[in-house]
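User: two proteins, same treatment. go.

Assistant:
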Amino acid sequence: MTLFYREKPRHHVGRRGFTLVEVLVVVVILGILVSIIVKMFDSKRQAYLAEMKSDLRNFITAEEAFYHKNSRYAGLMGIGMGMGIGPAELDLTLSAGVVLELNGNGTGFSGRTTHAQIPDRCAIFWGSPATIHQPATTEGVMVCDGGGGGMGMGMVP
């Protein structure tokens, strides 16, 4: 009886799978791409917020112009869509996508803007309107929030 030592044949001459370095490089690249995408979406959100704030400031200016002309605030109630059409009593044009909810009763006004692309909302009131739109809590202070309980923006001058 003869004993021979036989090596197992190598079916897989090359390596199998990925090395730890290769996996780490892929994870780092994915992390960089995700951070770029998040910043891009946040930039859009900031732009939409800027439109909302601008339109709300324009609403305040239009209300004050109406007051100085008529010795009262416009008696308005309703919603204005951002299609370049403002409420009839006010000389006001809204940005595309911005919705202005407003309320006025002669002794005060309240307004809130929202945008179709983000859940945030900005609001302000002055005087004693019948309805004060949330999230406004202090007279004359514009406040923006995340749409009813989310990311608070705090007070915005």
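Protein 2:
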Amino acid sequence: MKKNQPFRAILTTVIVSTSLFATASAARQPAIAKVDLTKGEKNPAEAPHDWTLGATGVRGWMHCEKFTTTDARQIAITAVEAGSPSAGILAVGDVILGVGGKAFSADPRRELGMALTAAEATDGKLSLLRWRAGQQSNAIITLPVLGSYSATAPYACSKSAKILQLGCTALAKRMQQANYEKINPIPRALNALALLASGDDQYLPLVRREAQWAANFQTDAMATWYYGYTIMLVAEYQMATGDKRYQD
């Protein structure tokens, strides 16, 4: 399988960093009341969206206005993945107030992201200022040590290469699970494109299966969106492999 370098760089960046996007409806989103989670106040019902918190293995809710979290200073843990670095350390209902023993002074996603990057480059120890049941303490999460990003990342970057490898391994495992065909067509196409862009031939049977699905895909709803991604998968697959069975 040929490696499409520009396309691979784009997908590596998608895996390396958390994707953020806004919709047209965001401009019409009503103002959300800011709450203090340490005083028993709850997440507003009209703002249920939470976020994946990088390599920690948890998701968290924070104050958000039009898909930006600039004014947030707390993160309420909403889910903890079993077997992740946070399992047994963080729990649903915990509130993260800061990193490195200091309270957040800016956007928590930015400060947490910087702390994650620093931990992965050194000893893997991520120190979080945790609030639980009225008490504050430092919780230490141990992350895999991946090194630092190169100045040319994602090109010529060992850390980017490791993240791409780990991401593709996880995607391939997920794509072989039962009922995988029921997921949304857009992430399904993107998952296959990520494996294709890796250039690793071990994923070719999975990519071929997904290209066949994409070539036969039909929909009556969100046609522009769904067809755009599925057609892209078929086109990239044909260019990378020379397999023209699905071009018509």
